[in-house]
Design brief:
Length: 311
C-alpha cells in the first residue's frame, strides 16, 4: 500500500524517468485546466484542477489505483497517446483509468476536462480528440449527428449520482436537504443546466422537490460540475450540487461532507463516442471498449459511478 503523501508536479524535471501525460486545455476560458500523470516509480496518480482564482486539488489516491492496476497487465499498443475529452465529473476518475490502461496496453491518455456542452462544441468545430466521454447522452449525440462519430449512436459507459456538498465548517454537519432552505444559507452553487448534465439534474431535482421557490434566489451558476465544487471549497458558496465522483474523492471528503440527492431527477446515464477520423482510431476504440468491459464496470462504484448495461 502506498502512502498518502502528495506528489508535487511543479518540481518535476525532464530526464528523471517519470512520464507525464500532456496538459490539455479546453478553449473555453471558464473550463478547468487539468494535469494528469503516470509516474513509473509510484503506483498512484494525482490530478490537479486549477480554476478561476482558487486552485483546488482533488487527488484519487492509492487504494483505488491498486485495485485497478491489479486487474490488468501486458501491452498491446506501444508508444501511443489517445486524446480524450472527458466531462468534468470524471476528473477524479481519469487518473486511475490512465494508470490502469497504460499498465495494460502501453497506451497513454492525454485528457481535457470541461462541461459536456463545451467539449461537444469543440469537437464539432474540429478539435482533434480521439474519444469523447460525456456526462449524458445529449452531447455525445450531437457529435454523432454532426457525422463525426465512428458509431451510429453513443455508447453507454456509466451512471452518475447527484449529491449536495458543503464544507465541514459550514455548520451543517450532518448535512440534510432541508439545509438548502435555511436562512443562513445565501449561496448555493449549481452547474449551468444548459451546459452540464449534473446542473440539469440539480434543477430537475429542485423542481420535483418543490425547492425552487426557496432556493432559486440563492443559486450561483458555474460552467461545469467541477467548478461548482470549487465554488463551495473556496467559500464562494455555502453548498453546491456536485457529482458523487467529486464529493467522494479523498481530498474532498477531508474538506466537506455530502448527502445524496433524492432520486427526483432523470438518471444521469453517461455516454461516450470514438471519433470517426481519430488519429488513433483502433486504440481509441479499444479504450472505450475497456471502459465498458465487465472488469472496469465492476470497479466503478469505487469512484462514485454506477455500472450500466453495456450490451
Amino acid at each position: 500500500m502506498t502512502t498518502d503523501k502528495p506528489l508535487h508536479t511543479s518540481r518535476h524535471k525532464g530526464g528523471s524517468g517519470n512520464r507525464w501525460l500532456r496538459l490539455r486545455r479546453v478553449s473555453d476560458r471558464r473550463s478547468l485546466c487539468i494535469v494528469t500523470g503516470v509516474l513509473n516509480s509510484y503506483s498512484r496518480l494525482i490530478s490537479f484542477c486549477l480554476g478561476y482564482r482558487t486552485g483546488l486539488r482533488v487527488p484519487r489516491l492509492a487504494g483505488a489505483f491498486v485495485l485497478f492496476a491489479g486487474l490488468f497487465s501486458g501491452q498491446i499498443f506501444a508508444q501511443t497517446t489517445i486524446k480524450v475529452a472527458a466531462a468534468s465529473d470524471l476528473q477524479p476518475v481519469m487518473p486511475a483509468f490512465a494508470y490502469a490502461y497504460e499498465k495494460k496496453t502501453g497506451v497513454k491518455l492525454s485528457v481535457s476536462f470541461g462541461s459536456s456542452a463545451t467539449l461537444a462544441e469543440q469537437i464539432v468545430n474540429g478539435a482533434p480528440f480521439d474519444v469523447f466521454l460525456g456526462a449524458d447522452f445529449v452531447f455525445p449525440e450531437k457529435v454523432v449527428a454532426a457525422g463525426l462519430a465512428a458509431t451510429p449512436a453513443p455508447l453507454r459507459y456509466a451512471k452518475g449520482t447527484l449529491v449536495l456538498f458543503t464544507r465541514k465548517d459550514s455548520g451543517f454537519n450532518p448535512l440534510h436537504m432541508e439545509a438548502l432552505t435555511d436562512s443562513k444559507v445565501t449561496k448555493v452553487a449549481v452547474a449551468d443546466q444548459f451546459q452540464a448534465p449534473f446542473g440539469r439534474a440539480a434543477y430537475a431535482a429542485m423542481n420535483k422537490l418543490d425547492l425552487m421557490k426557496a432556493v432559486g434566489p440563492k443559486l450561483v451558476s458555474a460552467p461545469n460540475v467541477a467548478q461548482t465544487a470549487q465554488f463551495v471549497v473556496s467559500g464562494n458558496a455555502q453548498m453546491g450540487f456536485v457529482s458523487l465522483t467529486l464529493a467522494s474523492s479523498p481530498q474532498m471528503k477531508e474538506i466537506g461532507n455530502y448527502v445524496l440527492v433524492p432520486k427526483a431527477y432523470p438518471e444521469i446515464l453517461q455516454y461516450g463516442v470514438v471519433m470517426k477520423n481519430a488519429e488513433h482510431k483502433a486504440e481509441a476504440t479499444a479504450f472505450l471498449d475497456w471502459v465498458r468491459s465487465s472488469e472496469v464496470q465492476d470497479k466503478l462504484k469505487d469512484f462514485g459511478l454506477e455500472p450500466v448495461d453495456t450490451h
